[in-house]
Task: structure prediction
Amino acid sequence: MTIVEPRRLSDKDTTIPGRPPRPLHSRRPAQASQRRHRPGRRPRRWAADAFLAAAAAGFGTVLGEVITAETRRSLSAPGGLLIAGGRLAGFSGAYFMLIMVLLIARVGWLERAVGQDSLVRWHRRVAPWALGLITAHVVLVTLGYAQSSQTGALRQFWVFLSSYPDILAATAGFGLLAMVAVTSVRIARKRLKYETWWVVHLYTYLALALAFAHQIATGASFVGHPLARAIWATTWASTAGLVIIYRFVLPLARNLRHQVRIERAREEAPGVYSIVCRGRRLDRLAVSGGQFFQWRFLARGLWWQAHPYSLSALPRPPLMRVTIKAVGDHSRAIARLRPGTRVLIEGPYGAFTHHAQSTDRVALIAAGVGITPVRAMLEDLPASVDVAVVVRASSPEDLVHRDEVATLVDRRGGQAYAVVGPRRTARFDARALGRLIPDLARRDVYVCGPSGFSAGVVSAALALGVPRDRIHHEAFAF
Ligand SMILES: Cc1cc2nc3c(=O)[nH]c(=O)nc-3n(C[C@H](O)[C@H](O)[C@H](O)COP(=O)(O)OP(=O)(O)OC[C@H]3O[C@@H](n4cnc5c(N)ncnc54)[C@H](O)[C@@H]3O)c2cc1C
Result:
């Protein structure tokens, strides 16, 4: 049956077919210890400002080095202005590429302060500038040298390729960057499988490595300027070091420590599975409710891809749980996973936690499997926080973890509602939201669900007077 009017989630007479409450580890109470998990690290709000300030200072230094390397004579020589402009564009573009790499290096302190979705958004914003500047570098330097040696641009380009080994490698790198750019354009991106796009993206690292030598060998700012050369080389080495530490060394160390394996899987709703995992020393894993990990299940056909899934409950060492909806290849294969399968986790990531809250009242609004981080956050919000929860689903069966949410909200003395039914009949707009939570404007609003749903709730919340900085949302796709 479809529920059009919102119901209190805990109503006993609800027409939602009830399932008996299923606490996280009900089947093995003896083995699930009462050890508490370690609370997630508090984000350092200044981290984002510090990163931006350091990035801006670095950019200023790069510009300074390139500009001061030019002389009046070099600028007034034939092609001099074009070459100088090309160098400036090249070093700026290369620097922006390093910033892009850092933004997605999953640097813990930055990630906690900003959130991975925002970092990915920043990465995408910088990308056209970086690629545009590098393209301008190729064009301007070729035209400048052609003018200087009074030859055609194509002829000059051929001279570069055939006589400068470092430039041949850099040109190959530029080709790779162009390929990455093409696959990232929205239309192409929509047609590509996520994994294909991701593998193509890995070529960016190769492209950067190929381009590095020609900067050091031929960059006018470096020839005869050992300090400038040392600063530039250190910048590159530090970026590579951070990538290696945060993307490889720390995740490897964590997995060696925790040795996570699947304990059991269970169908929670049609096509939605909970995976309970067992790990060693999970009490040492600092995580906040609402955060997610990248999960790599070491099973046939799955080991090579990692996917982001939020914890659907706080860890209860030695166990922790995710709840996954089957939407594509990876998530559909979850149902086939066997107990004992090894799992590599990377994280925790995400700023969708109680640390983002600035009032003592919150509204948690979720649709479909978007309930997972909300369910975990309900356990993690300080006891003094007043909670109102609204869960949206298209059918009663899709209300995942309904009983757990109802129990947690009841325990806190909060309110929880389900809005169930097709969008046409069960409307969930500003009016409906305002009726359910009349004091919404005085709350922090957390939203998680499909992008259309989240966008609708965000604009409804704004219309109801919630300040933008009190609206927090987790996108389930990057
Ligand atoms: C921060 C975050 C938390 C999430 N938490 C949960 C959760 O708790 N439960 C749940 O069921 N789903 C969650 N998701 C969504 C889940 O990651 C995708 O549904 C899953 O990766 C789809 O993979 P697929 O191969 O099954 O489907 P596909 O058909 O390959 O992908 C479907 C869509 O999912 C996105 N996607 C696919 N792979 C990735 C990836 N590796 N990284 C980022 N996005 C990807 C793409 O937008 C793609 O269009 C979360 C996503 C994010 C970003």
Observations:
- The radius of gyration is 26 Å.
- The longest strand covers residues 260-269.
- The CA atoms of residues 324 and 454 lie 19 Å apart.
